[in-house]
Every structure is written in structure tokens, then in C-alpha cells.
Amino acid sequence: MTTEALPEVENPDSRTAGWRDVAALIGARLRRRAALIAGAMRPLAWVLLGLMVALWIGGQILGWWELTVAASVIAATIVLCALFLLGRTAYDVALDLARTRVVVGERAVGALKLANPSNRAILPSRVVLPVGSGRGEFGIKRLAAGEEAEELFAIPTQNRGIVKVGPVSVVRGDPLGLFERTHNRDEPIDLFVHPKTIAFSGQSLGFLRDLEGLPAADLSRDDVSFHTLQEYQPGDDLRRVHWRSTARTGTMMVRQYEETRRSHFVIALSCAASDYVDPAEFELAISIAGSVGLRALQDSQHVDLRVQGRSLPSNSGKRLLDSLSGVEASKPKEGGLVALAGVVAATMPLASVVVLVSGSEVRPEDLRASCARLPYGSRVLAITAAAGQSPSLRRIGDADVVTVGALDQLPIALQKVLA
What we know:
four-stranded antiparallel β-sheet; 9 helices; DUF58; seven-stranded mixed β-sheet; Immunoglobulin-like; 32% helix
């Protein structure tokens, strides 16, 4: 007895569901393509598209075939321009700056390298390199498989600041400028434009409290700088008794020392716009702060840089200048020089030297109040940036106040303080 297999009956519902899935997939792809084209359309393309629709409707209503022909020509033009978006732009992009730190006024030189890693040619395209608020554009020729292209560029730096270079964008478009497709490549690079500074030599303004410290006028019972001998007083450490002198004089004598101080050098830079006549005077103050800070770092001192609202990294010359590159005028609610001096006194009470840097708009009474608020025992130097004035030196209480009219006057002005 043989058994015959029954023919399978196809379910109509499964066939319908399959066609629905295929239609949904095709529809999703078409929507993605349409969204890609719509995102690449520039304003001129939208104007032409609206004009095409208006001409087509007008031709159908009025029966003017000329309007219909014009609409067809515009439609064909839009379609042909959209074809320029097809193709790959898979460049390998490398952005290289010869130096990421320059002084204001210098040029930053770099190179932009593009390579085609695929096995197919890449059509000509345009590469956009954002530089701060501006941008540079490069026309890249057709690159065959494995071919490379290199573009050199120079960035002028008229103003101090931190400039973002990149990210590089590869732009594909049509000759009429109706469509433009952008692909970002690489990561942006920070270009630090440092303020101008001046190098000068001379005695350090700071003090030291370490084994190689400078002695101060304050006397101490326990330090490393020997000063003299004195008679024993109740409470003196017996380890400090000088036995030879005690045996010779018959009176117990103990050693007395001079207190030494650490190299804690604080620079308080006022960023209040009301303290300065104009932005040029503010830039002069920043250059003064940078020059003094570099001199203190060369003297192996611990430098703290303070502005309104925050303390800036300054443990090396590079970080000091990087910090000053990003300094901007503060808001009025953050206060001026007097408020800044109060913050320094509260947060850095053991400062050896405090240098206040401000502009010519600071009133003498505010300058006096600022110096009075600083930590007791610190040496205070106030430097006033006053563009165009001659260097001068005056005293306010125990503080030296120096007026500097140009950056090259700073060494002469500080020599008067150290004289």
C-alpha cells in the first residue's frame, strides 16, 4: 500500500504579509533617500521646486503648454543636480598643525591630508576647514583608489584666544549650488594663541621657606637659617642649647634663627572691564601678568594665577600661557579688584608675594583697599596697565605701585622696585 503526499496549500495571508514587508522595506529606504536629499537641498533648490510646482499648476489650469514645459525643464535640472550627490566620500582625513601654540601675531601653519582607502575612485569634492568663527575651503580633485592629496594652510592670529580648528567637513555638491551634502571627518584641534610677553632678568620678587630659602626679618626659635645666640628662656627647646657658649659664659645660651619663607607667588589679574579704558589696555595687563609669571617660574617659585571667579592652572610656563589665552572680561556681578583681593586673602593666606594687575580705571582708594585686604606679611606689588603713560613708581601703604604704559617698560619699572 503506497501513501501519496498531499500537495501543500499556500496560505494567502502569508503571501500578503510578505509583500507588505517588502513594500515597507522599500518605503523606508525611499524615505531615507528623500530625507537625505531634502537635508542636502539649499535655499535656491527650494525656490526652484516651488516655482516648478507653481508653473505646473498654472499650465494645467490655464492650458498654457509653455508653463508646463518650463516646469519640466526645472524638474529635469533639479534631478540632474541631485545626481551629483551620488557616490562615496570615504576619505581618510588627517589634520596636522605644526604648532598648537603660537604668540599673537604669528602664523600657525598646518597641513590637511586626504587619502582614498577604497578600491574605487572618489569624484571631485570640496573640503571645508572651520577656524574659529571663519572657515577655509579647499577644492579636492578626483582621487583614484589609494591616491592621496595634501593641502597646506596658514592661520593668521591677530587676536589672543583659544581657536578651534576643525572638524574637517567633506562637501559634495552640484555646479549650480542647489544641493550640498556634508560629512564631518576627524576631530577639532585647539590652537592656543598666547599673549605677548617679555623676558627680563633680575632679582626674584618672591621669598623662599625651604632649605635654600631667603631669610626674612622675623625671628624664630626653630628654622634652618642661624641668626644669633640668646639667653635661655623658660619654654625654649633644650635641643637648641649651645653648650660651648654656655660653658664659656656660665649662662645657658640657645640658638636663635631667622624665619625663611616659601616661594608662594600669587598673581591676581583683574578681568573686570570697568577697570580698563579699552580692550587694548586689558591685553596689556594680560601680557604683564604672563611676563611676571614666567619670571617667577624661572626662579623656581610656586605660582598661582587668580582671576575673578576661579583659579587658573599655572604650574608651568606652558600652562600659564594657555590659561591666559582663554581669559576674557568678567561679568560686573563678579566684582573688581577689591573683591579679587579679598578672595586671594581668604584662599591663599600664606602667600609670600602678591602681584595685583589691573587697569588705569581703578581708583586710588580702591587700589589702597585692595592692598590692605591682602594677607598680612606678604609683599604686595600692584602693577597698573596704563597704555601710553610713562613708567612710574609710588607707594600706597606698604605696597609698591608701578604704572606701565607699554610691555617693554616692564623690566625698567620692576628695576625701580628692586633697587
